[in-house]
Design brief:
- The protein has about 290 residues and is mainly α.
- Helix content is about 75%, strand content about 0%.
- Strands 1-2 form a two-stranded antiparallel ribbon.
- α2 crosses α3 (about 100-110) and α2 (about 35-95) packs parallel to α9.
- The longest helix has about 60 residues, at about 35-95.
- The radius of gyration is 27 Å and the shape is elongated.
- It starts with a helix and ends with a helix.
Length: about 290
């Protein structure tokens, strides 16, 4: 797993190199080059760096989404069981003490586990308004359970996605019609990548190769180039905020703990949660005994 910030460090040097060429001596990139030419090289480098950053961000977003799905599928029932035990423990304690404060806490704990609309979607088929599905009950009792659905793009899918994103990125469009065509195409690319659909990505690669060849970038005036650089800078700042939210979120933070083996991390968390379930069940039995 590569986070967007890590990917950025690999592309920054490449983005700065064309600017440095314009200050060197000899060749077409030397001090004799027109200011517009040096600025145009800087714009192209900034565009490429931004595209690479967006690729890294989308890849990380897919990884976070996949891990979030697996997290909810595998651990959702255990979290639900822990909340139910908390409510039952609070109710048993209130029944024993008849203390108003304990009764209040019991009502609050029960309110947290009451059925709510849309719970099926929240737990991705593990639970509905009537309680846990058989698969969830099986997992809590160490019985065989169907494995959670996995959507993890293969290395070939990652390669195809990166190639398509670099070639068809909307930021390389020269007019609004071309930008719209690229926007629609990249939306299909992103959807296929999120599903890990290598075959569709390969078809999209062939479709792009057979499509119209965009015109070469024409020389731009300095004012347009500076405006382009300013837009690229604002876009990079926005993407940086999105990346930070992903990386600092609960799922992103967990994923960064075990980037190479997220399944093992889920197993460790499941073991800890199941230990808590056993502890709370013993506490509840003692209160009711």
């Amino acid at each position: 797993m590569t986070t967007p910030d890590a990917e950025q460090s690999q592309t920054v040097s490449g983005a700065e190199e064309p600017v440095a060429e314009g200050t060197g001596s000899g060749g077409t990139g030397g001090a004799g080059a027109r200011p517009e030419e040096r600025l145009e090289r800087a714009v192209r480098a900034a565009e490429q760096a931004l595209i690479e950053y967006e690729i890294a961000l989308e890849t990380f977003r897919v990884e976070v989404e996949n891990f979030s799905r697996l997290h909810h599928q595998k651990l959702g029932p255990v979290y639900a069981r822990l909340e139910e035990l908390d409510a039952e423990i609070a109710e048993a304690r209130a029944a024993r003490t008849q203390d108003p404060e304990d009764i209040r806490r019991a009502h609050e704990a029960r309110a947290r586990v009451l059925p709510m609309p849309g719970v099926e979607e929240l737990f991705h088929g593990w639970m509905d308004a009537g309680g846990l599905f058989p698969e969830a009950q099986a997992m809590l009792t160490d019985q065989p359970v169907r494995p959670p659905q996995r959507v993890r793009p293969s290395e070939e899918a990652r390669k195809l996605y990166r190639e398509l994103a670099r070639k068809a990125h909307p930021d390389l469009a020269q007019d609004e019609d071309e930008r719209k065509r690229r926007d629609d195409f990249i939306a299909r690319v992103n959807a296929a990548y999120a599903r890990g659909d290598e075959a569709v990505l390969r078809e999209l690669s062939e479709e792009w190769a057979a499509g119209p060849v965009p015109e070469e970038r024409r020389p731009s005036h300095s004012e347009e180039l500076y405006a382009r650089l300013e837009w690229l800078s604002r876009r990079k700042e926005l993407l940086t905020l999105v990346a930070r939210e992903l990386e600092e979120g609960a799922i992103g933070s967990m994923l960064r703990l075990a980037p190479d083996d997220p399944d093992r991390l889920l197993e460790e968390i499941a073991e800890q949660l199941l230990a808590q379930v056993a502890q709370k069940e013993a506490e509840l039995e003692a209160l009711r005994g």
